[in-house]
Predict the 3D structure of the following.
Amino acid sequence: MKLVLLLIACWVVLIVIEVKTPVTELTPKEALVELEFLAEKLNFYDQTYYQDDNPEITDSEYDALRLRLETLEAAFPELVKLDSPSKRVGAAPAHGFKKISHAVPMLSLSNAFNSDDVADFIAKTQRFLGLNEEKSIEIVCEPKIDGLSVSLRYEKGILIQGSTRGDGANGEDITKNLKCLADIPKIIDNAPEILEVRGEVYMTKQDFSALNDLQKKRNQKPFANPRNAAAGSLRQKNPNVTASRKLQMFAYAWGEVSEMKVDTHWEFLKLLCAWKFPTNPLSVLRYKLEDCLEFYQKIEEKRSGLDYDIDGIVYKINNLDWQDRLGQVSRSPRWAVAHKFPAEKVKTILKEITIQVGRTGTLTPVATLDPVTVGGVVVSRATLHNRNEIIRKDIRKNDSVIVQRAGDVIPQVLSVILNERPKNSIPYVFPKYCPECGSHADQEEGGVAIRCTGGLVCPAQRVERLKHFVSRGAFDIEGLGTKHIEAFTKEGIIKNPVDIFFLSDSASMLSKRDGWGQQSVKNLIDAIDKSRTISLNRFIYSLGIRKVGQSTARLLAKQYCNLQTFLEHLQMAKDRKSESYNELISIDGIGSAVADELLGFCCEDNNRKILTKLSELLEVQDFQNVEITISPVSGKTVVFTGSLKKLSRAEAKNKAESLGSRVASNVSNKTDYVIVGSEPGSKAKKAQELGVNILSEEEWLELIR
């Protein structure tokens, strides 16, 4: 079972550095298929990293996957989904801890992989702010600590709350554990009424080595790396365990502050020191690109000699007023970027190629490697991504291969050493039939993924769909984990989601299973009963429909408000000429491709019966739309057209979104305001025809002021 789970975890890696087809040569359909594949894998790896403290791929592999996704989205903006991993931070908080909502979101950082990327970051900043290219921009350079991000909340100078980043909006309450760290002041003098300090908790290499020695003496599993050790130590239910482990913290940012006493980020770092917070002593203030890159090179050379892990340099715009104007885009601020260090490479033997079948039927080739130590960690598996990658690199069994690792567990196969290939080597033949159910495996027209056509007949797909159904973002049924789903489906106890809600009828039988007892069964039944009430967006997401992630599910819930209306409209939308179909594809972020997947799933007879039965068994709550930002334009749809004078287009859009507006690209009868600059064009004319409110730039600024 452990091997199966590990194989599931090893889906991704090879599309990263070398990709067969350049983005510019992809058709929209090919790009869509690859985007779906990337999203599915990144979602899984976010969970293993942020929730489980058990990353299954390296930082560089993850960064390269995300870079490929972002490159594709930039080239095909019409294919970008609102639930794309590029728009999300971290993962949902783990079980066992109370959730804490962050007053100010804890964002992630966009990445730079070379000097050109850093130069582009500075150039974009200048363009966004309307600065002259010769204008000097002060930049704070800080080593990027490889640890666990935390937020500390002080009220009247007293530490009252501490949390993890979680998904950026909500984290885990680990206050008691954080109070065990000597680095964290419990009381600070001369602090604002409200102050949130953010930083990174880490473990030194020396303390990590000592902890793993102790783990081995106790016959307990050693930690993979210092980051995992720090994260696992902070998530202990017993604070005494946390206190027994040597954890440290570097502070580097803020969240909610009732009164900011400084004008620059550099001054804030000095203020943190005055409040007795530890900050990284290697941080510097620089004034031009060349100086930043020189600092990067200097720290990279020192990296191996540091007693804590770093994986790059973070560059931050120093001026806080500029930071505020720059704002953020989806999951990351515009005023900061992480310049990542390159990965480490070694040679090993590829011993075997096996096939893993995913929830949507995708057949993913997985490489079993001769275990090799890279940076002190033994790695033994990697995904080969798809058939095209195997053919392009001519990867075969028993090949000598170059693999790469940056800081975690799973390597990336970069290339084959052809002159070391065995003489009796033969090319790998990708299966034409699903290894799980024997159904034919088809490659979508214009795509790269090969999928099993068995659907729910395929046991692998059925099991994976059920795992998704009970997962945290869906029904979140604690106690019904992977091994139980696999066992129950294998034995026919659960055949579809409806069966889960009748497990109480099998309570006596379940209590007689190995490892179970009456209390275990009672806990499971209680968890299932608790899940019978679920929000509409989580219900839609739980169905595991292709191309329908959490954000898309929320869009659908917001549009249709309740389950009955949702199902009725989808039934009517089967007619592609109907008003219901036009309404569906007109939802911003949902086009014909998503609509086809929705209709294909929800209108299939067997699925329809399951949906009907679930609606009878469950209380699916109507969607409640709560606007986070209260302003005169909260919930309004606005369109900008023409050239603006006081704001760049990017800054105007960012400001509108920060006030709760939705910025659209086209004018329709659902548009609330059209803001016109000079030479507005056809959008202003259409707005006039539809009777939409038209505002000048000055009128708009007055309205939002």
